[in-house]
Amino acid sequence: MNQVHGAISHAHNPERKDYLFRVSLKSVIFNEAGEVLVVKETGRDWWDLPGGGIDHGESVKEGLARELREEVSLTGDFEFRAILTEDPHYLAGLNLYQMRITFLVQPEVVVFAPGDDGDEVMFVDPFSFKDSEVFTERRIYDYSQLAHPETLQN
């Protein structure tokens, strides 16, 4: 097997090796009816939560804002709170390891449309994905249960 992308050897210190992970940020956004925002990204035929990889040098908020603008045309400010950080897992298609951080995002403006990287956007009852045959869609249900605003009341 070829070396996994993201391993960095140091010529000045051969014993040291650093490992990089792609970090994916996902957003759970509810409307007043308790439905969750989902997107079909360009070129995909399944629903997912909006989000994607954070770029080098971006803050978490900058990465979330960029991804939400690109996929669901988010405008305006938002508050966010991390609800789940997953262990890194191997993505064979990219030959790298990725970790996902999922956030409850509460935007000022709850009006969305497909962005440059999104084909379809809608609010849906997350329960409709509970038994989906598509792993990514089943995760929408799982994440929404973790993120539901009522579960975050202190």
Condensed summary:
With 154 residues, this protein is of the alpha+beta class. The protein is 17% helix and 34% strand. The chain has one domain: Alpha-Beta Complex (Nucleoside Triphosphate Pyrophosphohydrolase), CATH 3.90.79.
Number of β-strand runs: 9
Number of domains: 1
How widely separated are the two ends?
48 Å
Average of per-residue pLDDT values: 89
**Can you identify the CATH superfamily?**
Nucleoside Triphosphate Pyrophosphohydrolase
CATH class: Alpha Beta
Structural Rg:
17 Å
The number of helices is: 2
| Tertiary shape | globular
CATH architecture: Alpha-Beta Complex
Helix content: 10-25%
Which spans have pLDDT < 50 for at least 5 consecutive residues? none
CATH topology: Nucleoside Triphosphate Pyrophosphohydrolase
The main β sheet shows up as:
5 strands, mixed
SSE ordering: EEEEEHEEEEH
